[in-house]
Amino acid sequence: MKEIAIITGGNSAEYKISLSSANVVLKNLNKKKYNGTIINIKDNNWIAEINGNKIEVNKEDFSVTNKGDKILFDFIFMALHGPPAENGEIQPYFDNLNLAYSSCNPEVSSQTFNKIECNKLLTEFGFICANSYSYKKGEDIIPKEIIEKVGLPCFVKPNQAGSSFGISKVKKENEIEKAIEKALEHDNEVLIEQFIDGIELSCGVIWNNNKVKALPITEIVSKNEFFDFEAKYQGLSEEITPARINSELSTNIQKTTEEVYKKMNLRGICRIDFIVMNNIPYIIEINTIPGLSEESILPKQAKEAGFSLSELFDICIENTINK
Length: 323
Hints:
The chain has about 325 residues and is α+β, with helices and mostly antiparallel strands. Helix content is about 30%, strand content about 30%. It has helices at about 15-30, 90-95, 105-115, 115-125, 145-150, 175-185, 230-235, 245-265, 295-305, 310-320, and strands spanning about 1-10, 35-40, 45-50, 55, 65, 70, 75-80, 100, 130-135, 155-160, 170, 190-195, 200-210, 210-220, 235-240, 270-275, 280-285.
């Protein structure tokens, strides 16, 4: 019986979503193979939850002592969205303890969480991203310069944040400054992107049987202006799996997803988001720790692929340890 630590919590606006993901992981772990323990990390407080008891984690060896029994973990399942997991901050701690974990290594996590750096890398690898403009807190805001680069409408988003927090769709020049201020509430750097008018698609991807495997594609139809927090988590979107696209485009998206996984050196369960305009897939975002809550996209894709969540998590744990 392997001991699995399910890491959740964090310090970002995605805290509650992380808790939901962690509970889904705990509920669906194969009880014959794994004993799961949720560990909530918030600031310097690392608390394990065992049978209703809250126990402080010994950070020297990442152990928990419950009623005199010391638990040492065999594997870390990352269900923490945003910092300190999705941006790579916590991974060196586990690397130093020689503990395997389900997410990307610190370098890759840092690169993918930084949207500006990620887009540069993707472009260098030959993938297609939206035209963009980057802004740092304290710089002069020059709307005309921004519009010249990305056009209108455009999206203004925090460079390092998830779940669509702080994102605005800007249609007029006089809205740009307010949108940047909103994004700055979540990060000191802002990404302003060209509006890609097309079909929004999302494709999960895993490592299984020594190869990269894309999952079925989900089509996202938002009832709001775009796929914002309300659309994602409060039922204001229709998520259709498999996507209503032709087989040629579907194959293209899945192949692109697999190539991104390989070239970006991703690991574990990931999800790549696209918008397709004029039959061209633009990569919008790489999610290295995608949501696993009941409302999340990836569990639906796993089901369509014929995997139960228990099987999906088993694949993730066993293949990550072996890889």
